[in-house]
């Protein structure tokens, strides 16, 4: 019998995450990341801040400082000048990830792309 919460835990930088995971994080935190950061002590005894995020398969802690969280949103064209995920982008990601469902392989080619 499996243990509850036996999901692998992944600690990674935002820019090193798969693009699909980044999109899901944006859907989870459409008003930015900085207000959702948590702090913990890593294995080296250093205090680290990270954004928690969970999928069906994994628990993520996305390493970032408040300053990095603000910079990611500021540099990302998916967010407006107020730091909110743009409505059209939000709808696009929702549609994309609803179509993919739970069985989606983030490394597979997207079959729903339109050809020119």
What would your notes on this structure say?
There is one protein chain. A hairpin with a 5-residue loop joins β2 (38-41) and β3. The protein has helices at residues 19-28, 66-75, 87-100, and strands spanning 9-13, 38-41, 47-54, 59-63. The protein has a 4-stranded mixed beta sheet with strand order 1-4-3-2, with no helix packed on it. The radius of gyration is 16 Å and the shape is flat. The protein is α+β, with helices and mostly antiparallel strands and 116 residues long.
Q: What distinguishing features does this structure have?
A:
116 residues; alpha+beta; 4-stranded mixed sheet; flat; disordered C terminus
Instruction: Assign the structural class, choosing from mainly alpha, mainly beta, alpha/beta, alpha+beta, or little secondary structure.
Output: alpha+beta
Strand content: 15-25%
Distinct helical segment count: 3
Distance between the first and last residues' Cα: 50 Å
Give the spatial strand order of the biggest sheet: 1-4-3-2
Radius of gyration: 16 Å
How much helix, percentage-wise, in residues? Answer: 25-40%
> How many β-strand runs?
4
Order of helices and strands: EHEEEHH
Q: Spans with pLDDT under 50 lasting ≥5 residues? A: 102-116
Which of globular, elongated, flat, extended, rod-shaped describes the shape? Answer: flat
The largest sheet, given as strand count, sense and whether it forms a barrel, is: 4 strands, mixed
Query: What's the overall average pLDDT, rounded?
Result: 85
